[in-house]
Design goal:
mainly alpha; Sodium/glucose cotransporter; 0% strand
Length: 503
């Protein structure tokens, strides 16, 4: 029961910080972007914790356990995406909005804002949903709590935590979470490695394909797992919202530099740990009490934490690793719940329903949205076979539906309003179509790892073709993305002056 009580103690600590921070929330800027005062070290922690979620802990680890180090193509997509983000971070912070749909309306129009919000909500409640499932795995493992009850308990905690203080609480606890995550995996990997027998043992006993660049697959498969994470990260609303919360442009850029270093280290360590530990537990044979079957490979890191002494990690190391799992699940769940609640509150409620909303009304509205979206995320769990399916679908929804139009706003002056809107609608529609068809077939129509290819391809094609077939936008639509001046309000006002009677 010591694992259960450690989990409880860790959650109590996180909730205590959130409740304390709730008394510091005075307005929507505090709740949504932490008063735009987050220093570099806190920004690094919260960016790392947001990205290293159940997609890495469960889906990524499960994939690594089965295919080997070629799984790092999935992680490498994020590394490349972060490098691209480095060159945009300062400009994103300079625009200083609250949400990605703010940017979409600034560059395109209110239709782009609405479609962008819808894309984010669908993708993010899917991601939050598999954080709930990850929490269910943890509680089942450490306390024999039925998985469905563990999912509900995790959902209640994450929703409550997020609703208390928003971004203020998230950035405050993520520096702790980031430290725990990094320390836990870096301690566990060498212990398992040397306990098993080191390089000589693994080179002799693991399938050589586990060490090959593409494993037993080909470059098309690698592209299929690489692109979703890369495109997701470059269009990831959480990241932009956290750049908006940075103290300055310099703080945003510096945080990205350290973030990419931390992500490479942690994700490589998670993949290594998953490969080594799964080889041990799967090799025990189905008759052994600690045997881990291939279909349960997504639980390999949690299994390793719970039965740490079996692979040479002392109990203290196992407790640290289970705390890291809790940190990963809760921090990602919080961030991915806050972002769509911010979108719905600001981009729908304030923009179209109650433009004159007070700060108090905005905070109350967003807390209500957190609860509603938490319930939706729980319901979303029933629509997918595995966490890996959920992860790739969510990644593709953002990567194909949002990223092309978002990057074009910063990088291509010739993109037009019609092209941006067409790109968002096309990417979202293709992703939803393939996902719905796959869910109704015994075997997927298009493998989950390949959904990004038609979805992103169609989105980019729509962006380019429609933009080239429509007249260029006026200068005021794009100049603000290449200069130091500009605000959303100013852009909307200029648009109204240029087109009287149109919103």
């Amino acid at each position: 029961m010591i694992f259960f009580w450690i989990v409880v103690a860790y959650l109590v600590m996180l909730m205590s910080i959130s409740v304390t921070k709730s008394f510091m929330v005075r307005n929507q800027e505090d709740f949504m972007v932490a008063g735009r005062s987050v220093p570099t070290y806190k920004l690094v922690g919260t960016l790392l914790c947001t990205w290293i979620g159940s997609g890495s802990l469960l889906a990524g680890a499960g994939l690594a356990a089965q295919v080997g180090f070629s799984e790092l193509w999935m992680a490498a997509g994020a590394w490349v995406g972060i490098v691209v983000i480095y060159f945009l971070a300062g400009r994103v912070r300079r625009i200083a909005q609250f949400t990605v749909p703010d940017i979409l309306e600034m560059r395109y129009n209110h239709v782009a804002r609405i479609l962008g919000t819808l894309t984010i909500v669908i993708a993010y409640i899917t991601i939050v949903g598999y954080q709930f499932r990850g929490g269910g795995f943890v509680l089942e493992l450490v306390a024999d709590i039925p998985q469905w009850q563990g999912v509900l308990m995790t959902a209640v905690f994450i929703v409550g935590f997020t609703a208390f203080a928003g971004m203020l609480s998230i950035v405050s606890v993520d520096i702790i979470n980031g430290t725990v995550i990094t320390l836990a995996v870096l301690v566990a990997v060498p212990m398992v490695f040397f306990n098993a027998g080191g390089a000589e043992y693994f080179s002799a006993n693991l399938d050589p394909a586990m060490f090959q660049v593409f494993g037993e697959h080909n470059w098309i498969w690698a592209l299929g797992v690489f692109l979703p994470t890369m495109l997701l990260l470059m269009g990831e609303s959480n990241m932009y919202q956290k750049f908006f919360s940075a103290r300055s442009e310099k703080a945003a850029r510096n945080a990205v530099m350290w973030w990419v270093i931390g992500t490479i280290i942690v994700e490589t360590a998670i993949a290594s740990l998953a490969i080594m530990a799964f080889h041990h537990f799967n090799g025990l044979g189905s008759g052994h009490a600690l045997y881990l079957a291939a279909e349960n490979s997504e639980q390999v890191i949690l299994h390793t934490a719970r039965y740490s002494t079996e692979v040479g990690i002392p109990v203290a190391g196992g407790l640290l690793l289970i705390c890291a799992a809790v940190a990963i699940i809760t921090s990602t769940g919080n961030s991915f719940l806050l972002a769509p609640s911010t979108n719905l509150t600001r981009d729908i409620y304030q923009r179209f329903i109650n433009p004159g909303a007070t700060d108090r009304q905005m905070v109350i509205a967003q807390r209500s949205m957190v609860v509603v979206l938490g319930i939706a995320a729980w319901l979303m769990l029933t629509q997918f076979r595995t966490i890996l399916d959920m992860a790739f679908t969510a990644y593709t929804m953002i990567g194909a539906g949002l990223t092309p139009a978002l990057l074009a706003a910063f990088l291509w002056k010739r993109v037009t309003t019609a092209g941006g809107v067409a790109s968002i609608a096309t990417g979202m529609a293709v992703t939803v179509l393939v996902t719905v068809v796959n869910a109704r077939l015994d075997e997927p129509w298009i493998p989950t790892t390949h959904i990004v290819l038609p979805a992103a391809g169609a989105s980019i094609l729509a962006l380019v073709v429609v933009s080239l077939l429509t007249p260029p936008d006026p200068d005021y639509k794009w100049k603000k993305f290449y200069t130091k001046e500009g605000s959303l309000a100013g852009a909307i006002e200029e648009q109204r002056k240029a087109q009287p009677g149109k919103g």
